[in-house]
Specification:
Strand content: 15-25%
Distance between the termini: 45 Å
Number of strands: 12
Oligomer: single chain
Structural class: alpha/beta
Strand order of the largest sheet: 3-2-1-4-5-6
Order of helices and strands: EHEHEHEHEEHHEHEHEHEHEHEHH
Shape: globular
């Protein structure tokens, strides 16, 4: 049997498919499983042992895009898949699933594209307090696979040894040694709906680092958030004074390197974004800041023995939202979260 899985983006969404990939492998141990993903999230499943073939599908511009798409479609059709599951159901994913020619094509009911699938799974349009892993798992009903379980089917992102060694060397160069307790804090500032104030991040970094001389806080960010990360580091170091060396940066990290860095951490702190979901594939304690989204939808999907703290502003009538416009105008779902709340949650996670 040959099975095609399509989940083009984003990072967190690809992470959320990994429990389903493991379940499919257990259900069909002899199947050849192919996973189609776009470059930005390909590192999530690059070393997944449950996947036989990874197809990275870039989106070039101009005439090259048409040539690339036609080549990809020919490759999918030539493979003669028996089953195709579209975890994405966006326009491109729907077309690729349909044109794969698989006789069984599983996808969600989507206006204008439902006809591309042979087996449809209802997906309500409203935002529900239900985990994204469960939403994507609904597609497995067509394969006679039982309900999801956080212990049997956690999110996962396997690493290669070379990446872990490279990150260890980078930490050593930055002055982080074996007797240090590492705190990884990811700064996200590009999207106003995920943007916790820089001063708040700095206060948390300084507050945690200042409590214990063995702690080292590493600030990470995406490429577009580099300036914000630099400001967090500068403000936190200013608050620490002569202890400024306890807050540092390790340069730009790939997704694989970020995953290896998290493995070295005593706790990870960050918003509801792709890096937090990467952190969830580890056993490291996590403190997550939730603004327009809900923990019920995207909290770490793993065994509950691994500590995970959710920090949020409860009882806001505007939560959750579609992240297209802020009705109050002040992004209060995030800006009302106080640094002390995050510090206390991190201390609980550190001792949990």
């Amino acid at each position: 049997m040959k099975i095609l899985l399509v989940r083009l983006r984003e990072i967190g969404d690809v992470v959320f498919t990994t429990p389903a990939v493991r379940a499919i492998r257990r259900r069909f141990p002899e199947a050849h499983i192919t996973y189609v993903v776009e470059p930005a999230a390909s590192a999530i499943v690059e070393h997944n042992p449950n996947i036989d073939e990874l197809i990275v599908a870039p989106r070039p511009s101009g005439i090259g895009r048409l040539r690339s798409e036609l080549g990809l479609i020919r490759r999918l059709r030539a493979a003669a898949y028996d089953i195709a599951i579209d975890f994405h159901c966006g326009p491109r994913a729907s077309i690729l699933t349909w044109l794969s020619g698989a006789p069984v094509r599983v996808g969600y009911t989507v206006v204008g594209r439902s006809w591309m699938y042979t087996r449809l799974i209802a997906r309500p349009r409203e935002l529900r307090p239900r985990h994204s892993v469960e939403n994507q798992w609904d597609l497995l009903a067509a394969l006679d696979i039982g309900p999801p379980d956080r212990i049997e089917y956690p999110v996962e992102m396997p690493l290669d040894d070379r990446t872990a060694s490279a990150v260890a060397e980078r930490l050593a160069r930055a002055g982080v040694h074996g007797d240090h307790r590492l705190i990884v804090m990811h700064v996200s500032a590009g999207n106003p709906f995920r943007r916790w104030p820089i001063g708040s991040f700095a206060a948390v970094a300084a507050g945690l680092a200042g409590r214990d001389p063995t702690r080292r806080v590493v600030i990470t960010s995406g490429p577009s958030d580099r300036e914000a990360a630099d400001r967090v580091i500068a403000e936190a170091q200013a608050l620490l004074g002569h202890d400024r060396g306890r807050v540092l940066e390790c340069g730009e990290l790939s997704l694989q390197e970020l995953r290896a860095l998290v493995d070295r951490a005593a706790v990870y702190i960050g918003g509801d974004s792709g890096p937090m979901h990467i952190a969830a594939t580890s056993h490291v304690p996590i403190v997550s800041l939730y603004g327009p989204t809900l923990p019920a939808r995207s909290a770490p999907w793993r065994a509950t023995i691994w500590p995970a703290e959710s920090v949020e502003v409860a009882d806001l009538a505007c939560r959750p939202c579609d992240q297209r416009s802020c009705l109050p105008g002040d992004f209060r779902c995030l800006t009302w979260i106080q640094p002390q709340q995050v510090i206390e949650a991190a201390e609980r996670a550190l001792t949990g």
